[in-house]
Design brief:
about 400 residues; alpha/beta; 15 strands; 2 domains; Aspartate Aminotransferase, domain 2; PyrdxlP-dep_Trfase_small; seven-stranded mixed β-sheet
Length: about 400
């Protein structure tokens, strides 16, 4: 799981009530990032693993492949930003698209536009969807939207739950994949049925597709066909594609024209965004074609992790989902998160192998149950199943 906390606070000395010194959280965070970023072997390369100089140098070195750098920088969304909008709309199969500085803003704009068109501000979504868990009630606090939940199961709703819900809603929002449930996806047939059920209720369908790029292997369909099920789609460029920031909302021309007006009202009409736009174009060119190989190898890694824990005699563990639906999945263990995080850090620091990163306590389960997210990208392709099993055995030894 990416550690994206900002490094802006000064170092301080913290003491416990008994007077013993504790490690400064900021210093610990910096140390953790340096260790994981500097590991010789890792399953995924994350943006926080690199310095500002390294990220800028990479952008300068590669950006000429995707855009003419002799052109002028963008001004309020023209130039390279408009080119990213065009290419993303083409990739998703929509007639128009608008670039936003964040997915939070893009989705608020999309859903308030749909609410005005349907006459219903109620949005049906999963309780684990990103707006419900990670956006501080932005839908209700900022955009006047109301949310309802069609199911509490750790999966997307099925067609029967959509059809049988007891009150009307204007928009059905589906997060593909549902990250906080384990990056899970329905089957293609289930997804089609859910969309058809929403249409039968006269609701529009919006995809929270921050990680939609990852779904093509699971569904066995091209991206345009998947996105084409929805009335509008949001995609992210820094999730999965390795960009700097930013998101695109794609949909019908009239919706996107209205969204551009609301983007301005929300403060998203930025003067220049060319670094983020160039990074997004690079993600489409270089990373997007490689994602199927990441998903395929994630299944190998996930199976080997399970085998490693079993061989090490761990009494209970869980790899979820098994096999993974995308190139990201969860691993669960019956230990405190602090214990697991410390073991992961020691392993990377002492052996140069970064198998796991930070662990988190179960949000709803019993104490002493924790999980981590595992992501497999280009560096992970070099790991064999035996490499993974060996790393798991070493991690378990550090726990004991």
């Amino acid at each position: 799981m990416a550690d994206t906390e900002r490094a802006s606070r000064p170092e301080t000395t913290i003491t416990t009530p008994g007077g013993a010194p504790e490690e400064d959280p900021e210093r610990a965070r910096r140390h953790r990032m340096a260790v994981f970023g500097g590991a010789e072997r890792k399953l995924a390369d994350q943006s926080v693993d690199h310095s500002l100089a390294e990220r800028l140098a990479a952008l300068v070195a590669d950006a000429g492949e995707v855009y003419d750098l002799a052109e002028s920088p963008d001004i309020y969304g023209d130039g390279v930003v408009a080119e990213l909008e065009r290419r993303t709309a083409e990739e998703l199969g929509f007639p128009a698209a608008a670039f936003f500085p964040s997915g939070t803003m893009a989705q608020q704009v999309a859903l308030r536009c749909w609410a005005a068109r349907t006459g219903n501000p109620t949005v049906a979504l999963h309780p684990l969807a990103h707006p419900e868990v990670h956006e501080r009630q932005a839908f209700s606090q900022v955009s006047g939207l109301r949310t309802v939940h069609l199911t509490d199961e750790p999966r997307l709703p099925n067609a029967a739950e959509v059809l049988d819900f007891e009150e009307p809603f204007g928009t059905l929002m589906l997060e593909l994949p549902l990250r906080d449930a384990g990056h899970v996806l329905p089957s293609w047939e289930e997804l089609v049925a859910v969309v058809e059920a929403a249409r039968e209720r006269d609701a529009v369908v919006h995809f929270d597709g921050a990680r939609l790029w990852e779904t093509t292997p699971h569904f066995g369909r091209p991206l345009r066909e998947i996105a084409g099920l929805a009335d509008s789609v949001y995609v992210s460029f820094y999730k999965t594609l390795g960009g700097l920031s930013g998101a695109v909302l794609a949909g019908p021309e009239s919706l996107i024209a209205e969204a551009r007006t609301w983007r301005h009202r929300y403060g998203g009409q930025l003067f220049q965004q060319f670094p983020a736009a160039l990074a997004g174009l690079l993600g489409l060119r270089k990373v997007l074609p490689e994602i199927p190989s990441y998903v395929t190898h994630a299944k190998v890694v996930a199976q080997a992790i399970g085998e490693g824990f079993a061989q090490a005699g761990v009494a209970w563990f869980r790899v979820h989902p098994e096999p993974p639906h995308t190139h990201e999945f969860q691993v669960w263990l019956p230990y405190d998160a602090e214990v697991l995080s410390a073991a992961a850090l020691r392993q990377a620091e002492e052996s140069g192998v970064c198998l796991f990163r930070r662990w988190l306590p179960s949000p709803s389960g019993p104490q002493g149950l924790s999980f981590t997210e595992v992501t497999v990208t280009a560096p992970g392709l070099a790991w064999t199943a035996e490499d993974v099993r060996t790393a798991v055995a070493d991690f378990v030894r550090r726990l004991r």
